[in-house]
């Protein structure tokens, strides 16, 4: 799917890219931040959820499918605690 873009600098950091795409007879709009500037009218590929066309691969609100670092840290802490407790239980 090709989209049209409008690159707008957001301060001195990344660029805010606004774009629109057409899916299932409707036009959808969204935006994302990019470290590089895209010319107005530039096209780039995106994918969208056919069951919910407002969800797309560039949206900041779309789940990425990766676990947040905090969740991984908690799971690792629990695993290490259980390992430690099992080792201490074996020493007695």
Order of helices and strands: EEEEEH
- Based on CA inertia axes, which overall geometry fits? elongated
Radius of gyration: 22 Å
Number of distinct beta strands: 5
- Average pLDDT rating: 78
Number of domains: 1
**Largest sheet, described in full?**
3 strands, antiparallel
Main sheet strand line-up: 1-2-3
- Cα-to-Cα separation, first versus last residue: 64 Å
Strand content: 25-35%
Measured as a percent range, the helix fraction is 25-40%
The count of helical stretches stands at 1
Task: Characterise the protein shown here.
- This protein is an alpha+beta fold.
- The chain has one domain (4-91).
- 25% of the residues lie in helices and 34% in strands.
- The chain has 1 helix and 5 strands.
- It has a 3-stranded antiparallel sheet with strand order 1-2-3, with no helix packed on it. It has a two-stranded antiparallel ribbon with strand order 4-5.
- The mean pLDDT is 78.
Question: Summary?
Answer:
With 92 residues, the chain is of the alpha+beta class. The chain is built from 1 helix and 5 strands.
Task: Spell out the key features of this protein.
92 residues; alpha+beta; three-stranded antiparallel beta sheet; two-stranded antiparallel sheet; elongated
Lay out the secondary structure.
Layout lengths: L3 E6 L5 E9 L2 E9 L13 E2 L2 E5 L12 H23 L1
